[in-house]
Amino acid sequence: MxxxxxxxxxxxxxxxxxxxxxxxxxxRIAAETVGRAEEQALRITKxxxxxxxxxxxxxxxxxxxxxxxxxxxxxxxARKERQQAAALEQTLGRRDxxxxxxxxxxxxxxxxxNNRDRVLSDREKAAGAAAAKYDRLVAEQQHELERVASLTxxxxxxxxxxxxxGDARHEAANLVKRLDTEARxxxxxxxxxxxxxxxxxxxxxxxxxxxxxxxxxxxxxxxxRIIGREGRNIRALELATGxxxxxxxxxxxxxxxxxxxxxxxxxxxxxxRLIADGRIHPARIEEVVQKVKEETDESMRKEGExxxxxxxxxxxxxxxxxxxxxLKYRTSYGQNVLAHxxxxxxxxxxxxxxxxxxxxxxxxxxxxxxxxxxIDRDMQxxxxxxxxxxxxxxxxxxxxxxxxxxxxxDIDWPSLEAMIxxxxxxxxxxxxxxxxxxxxxxxxxxxxxEGIADSFKGxxxxxxxxxxxxxxxxVESEKISDEEAVWxxxxxxxxxxxxxxxxxxxxxxxxxxxxxxxxxx
Length: 521
What we know:
This protein has 521 residues and is mainly α. Among the domains are: 108 residues, Hypothetical protein af1432 (Orthogonal Bundle), CATH 1.10.3210; 73 residues, 2-Layer Sandwich (GMP Synthetase, Chain A, domain 3). 70% of the residues lie in helices and 7% in strands. The chain is built from 14 helices and eight strands. A three-stranded antiparallel beta sheet has the order 1-3-2, with helices on one face. It has a three-stranded mixed beta sheet with strand order 6-7-8, with helices on one face. α4 runs parallel beside α6 and α6 crosses α7. It is flat. It starts with a helix and ends in a 10-residue tail after the last strand.
């Protein structure tokens, strides 16, 4: 028991000793840490003082440098101002000297002018005396001439003027004859040069338009849907568009046939939209065709406006743009009329500038020369008459209207610009490849037109005029009365409408005359 107590006491004392040693060690460490902290704080304080002193010196140096720079700048400015003042003083000195010299020159000039005034005054007096002497001598000489020639002054003057006038007329006639001969010799060469130059500068490409369009189909199964039950869809399409649809064995295609390019384009776009939409029935067909027509009309207006802007015609009426755009879907012997009008305008502009004419009037008249073809199928009258009325209603100048009106030589040439328009129209139509079978189809059309007229009883001779736009029929007065001539013109017109395909209209004129012939024996 006592041994256990001793061990416990020894253990407690050992623990106390270890704790005491630990406490003493912690105090020593704390004292060392505090000492090091104090040393570090003292070192930092000294470094801060040295840094502050260094910054203070740097700031002082910067301030001194800035003050020095300001002082130098002030001295430079002062030197500059002194130099400017010196230069100004020198300039003022030179001006003062110049003023003094100018004043001296003015004084010398005044003296010289005074001397000249005295000289002129003396000369005027001498001239007055000489004039009086001259008048006296002329009067004496005139009196002596009248006495010798037995003529008064007026009679002699009239005789002299007649002689001079005769000589002048003779020389003028010779000059006019020589200039006329030279003009005739060079006119043909110059005209060929101008026309060739215009053609080369235009050099348009031509693509003859056909009377059919092809609509591509994704598959042949769609042909049945386009035809519809008992053909109701295809009938609705043909009725709404006014074209013929040919659905045959051609793989993957439907042919749209018609002489009107506008109707063919509407039909083609409508079919393509119906195929893309998938709903094909009569009500939907009418809706799509109407929408395509509206969009096509707007695109035609924009097309006419774009072509006019390209030609530099920026002030045309919007209705003119609309009609010119319609010509995109009108052809003449396969030639697109809008492209033809633009080409004629370019050719006319080139030639007008070459010969020094009014290019603006010429280009404007050339571009609008066939505008009547956009409405001749809807209104009564030739395309020329309709075009003239339309342009006048929309404020076109008379110079433009008359130049346009003469492009078929229906009237006498109103101006040189009209001649240029007619020449440009002929060049565009006659370009190789511009029109399809122009001579052959033209002759056949005229022959058939005259054949229809000649087939009627009482007709002695018929003549197709103006490229088939008019036919004049001579009848036998013994067989056809005046009343029958009226009905004959109507019958021939109905027959032409039923048997011929033609753009615009054809004027039918029946002429009946009675001749009484006798002989004096």
